[in-house]
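User: ok so my PI wants both of these folded by tonight, can you help

Assistant: No problem, let's get them done. Here's the first:
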Amino acid sequence: MTIKKTAQRGPINTDTDREGARRITGHRKNPMMHQLKHQLQPRMRIEYLKTFLLLLLALIIILPLALLFSSSLKDDRYQITAELGSLKAFFVPNPSFNNYIEILGPKAPVPMARFFLNSCIVMAGTVVGTLVVSTMTAYALLRGKFRFKRIIMTGIIALYIIPAEAIMLPLLFLSVKIHLSDTYIIQMLPFMASPIYIFLFHQFFKEIPASIAESAQIEGASFWKIFHLVFVPLNVPALVTVTILQGMESWNQYLWPLLVVRSENVRPMTVAIASFFSTSDIYWDRLFAASVVMMMPILVLYLAFQKYFIASIASSAVKG
């Protein structure tokens, strides 16, 4: 009887069974896939929103720069003022470099090339002085053997809350008394000992293990040789960060040079650009070209040391 019943069932259809198994598996997977898509959908919306906001922020930053550069390539200042309120301001049908030639050439009515060189000299001197003074002060406060180190460090940090404008008149009076006004050095000196950069280097130097300095001392290295061979090379990102930040701050200084500089021989570019607004008839084409020239050194400085700057920020975040 068993044999007959088996024979009555007929051959097994494997294709039908596989298709049925696939359908069952599909029904089981569909709810899981639906649940997974439901969970990922809010995350994707957040990512799209972040991307949109970043693109909007980038557009807000880039548009003024694009307008500045495009306007500097227009040779007609009346055309610039007429098109500023429309999209035509971003387009340059006939680009020209006459504005750059007029401000940087040997026959320029305003010696902008000289002012540019003055700004470069002041920035370089200020950055080098800041790096030397800040690193040595931070190192001495960290490893020096003298009393009241913490009190001195607290006082240096407290100086940061005093705005520079509050002490500019006493500094101006002092610079006149010691006959340093209208020089390069008076534009650099007040900014070399910056409390914030001393504190920054102090915090970076603290992260270096004391065993490294002790090993160098056992090998016969002196106090300042350890600073030169150990602490400075291990903090290159911090050095680059201070170079960029102090370089930008020095390059954009306006009020202090305006007070202490009288002659064109040492006048920086910021004061020179402001002179375009001292007349009733403003040459917007030359003004935009001078602004582009002034922007380029800081942009090149940042792009050249970008990886060190990012590394410094990343290491600060890890330490924090």
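One down. Here's the second:
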Amino acid sequence: MNPNMTDWFDKYLNNQMSDAELSEFYSALENNKQLKSDFENYQLLIQSFQDYHQKNDLENKFNEWYIEEQNIKPLQNRRLWWSVSYIAASVALLVTLSGIWFYETLKNETKKQSKEITYLKKELQNIQSQQKNIVRSFHQMQQKKYAPANSQSTGFLIAPKYILTTFHSVQAADSIFVENENIPRTQSQIVYTNPALDVALLYVPSFGIHTDAHLLSKSSSIGNSVFTLGYPTSQMVYNEGYISAINGYEEDTAFYQITLPLNPGNSGSPLFDIKGNIIGMIVSKNASMEGVAFALKSTMLYSLRDSLPSDSIKVVWNKAFKKYSLNRSDKQQIIQKYKPLVFKIYVYQKSI
């Protein structure tokens, strides 16, 4: 389980999710059995901790009450003390499964009562054993720490084993790793670059992910609504805007100018139109104009096919582009489809 999942689980358990986030969360649980199992184990872990604290609070309150009663009024007879103890034990058993501590005092009561408490003890032992396994797994998960990367950006899968990102984000890399919410951190390698257009193609040999990513091989128009998915933070971020100019900085025809709020880390993010076509890749933003950014047109990406280094890469490249436009209308379905195909790109350098 990815360590970032615990933040997602906590947000759900603390009722801090919006309606859209809840829909996304339930969909993820339904479609990912491992995620669902991790969440159920995490819930059990949290509940076990809560039950343990409830038991301690109850025991402390009972002890304080008993000491106070002893100081105020001497105990008249042992039968009264047994009655009070029985009531306290009943409350403890109802509040928490941790009533085992009182069993030794009451084990000589009736046989029926003894059997009931023994059963609860077995159940508690099972829970404690399971809790220890969960805690052990949780600690192992937390211990898998990675060295801080020198930089982080975004990339997206355009064909099986191939991720597209920006050249400037990986140009000084000694090693590159990719990761998202479904795939653990995995090493990749650069197989193609085009510094003039700020394009880099990464190859991930261990990937077995199927993709039907759809890059549009024709231009979009000014005023068209667009959105992007990327990793300016540790979690995926959605942003939307529109094409504000058909050409980029200083009227560069290779780029769109878009009005879209972006942050460092969004470099390499796919740019979608409202139908779910990938129409470009986020490259940069205008430092002097708030909310103005630039995206390399998918038509320019398409034109690179003749400069690719091998026929095998040309084949997968051509399959990623379509001349016709898709006509999807449900944005949530589009987002859910492409989320597993968008990755964080971690760059490591031996020296800066």
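Confidence is low (pLDDT under 50) at residues 95-125. The first strand starts at residue 151 and ends at 159. Good luck tonight!
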